[in-house]
Amino acid sequence: MPLKFTKMHGLGNDYVLMSLFDQRVRAPAELARALSDRHRGVGSDGLILVGPPESDDADVRMLVFNADGSRAQMCGNGIRCLAKLCHEHGLARQNPMRIATDAGVLTLELTCTADDQVALVRVDMGAPVLEPWRIPVALGGQRVVAAPLPLRAHVLSVTCVSFGNPHAVFFTDDVSSEPLAQWGPEIERHPLFPERINVHFAQVLAPERVRMITWERGTGLTHACGTGASAVCVAGVLNRLTERAITAELPGGELSLVWDEPSNHVFMTGPATEVFQGQWPDE
Fold first, then answer.
1. Strands 198-206 and 209-216: what pairing?
2. For 23-52, how does the pLDDT look when each residue is reduced to its tens digit (9 = 90+)?
3. What's the whole-model pTM score?
4. Catalytic site residues?
């Protein structure tokens, strides 16, 4: 039988979502590559599967596969899409909603319209991981903040943060001048990052506002990255460049982020949009 799917996006970071409640998905990595192809498939930055949780501490389970078929521990834009899908399609109606990911169980608060459509989702991203051996980064010390990263004839200054998936943040005076399409794949696979890494260049516009661009591990250039924006929020504070509450301008739109001091958690708020539903042949 054909596989039912829903195409969604969070600020242009687009995914194909499939429910495991009523269908079986074989070879998800291969399926992710086929679906994500923008010429021969649906076109997306990856595949997200939603199914029953494995324990009572979550309402649903989220599995993320990048466009190249690799597994991602979490996806900030994708998890907002999943929460909207679950609420509006009746897969889970809890609010707050608990979603189990490979990075742990995350709690999401849904803001709904008068007709019960999800307008905004606030995600408790948890505490940032800063220890290099946990991110992982092949460096010693307690944190990787403004560390030198050699790249060709350049030496860049990198700050690294993980939210279940690893991020490298580079602050610059002008993101539009950075050759991210060229440097992104090289930094992603740099020897300092044994599990590859997501790459972000960020420009501080004001203490409470940044502009950023992203090269996503396993996908490439993307319009937005929720975990990446969360990493930029933390990196800005660690480098004494920004406040703990910021607005991140991404190519696809804006996200609101707060690194809450009492809890040490980062909270990300943004929209999610359903584009269309369809069927994919299950060969």
1. antiparallel
2. 999 999 999 999 999 999 999 999 999 999
3. 0.93
4. 75, 225
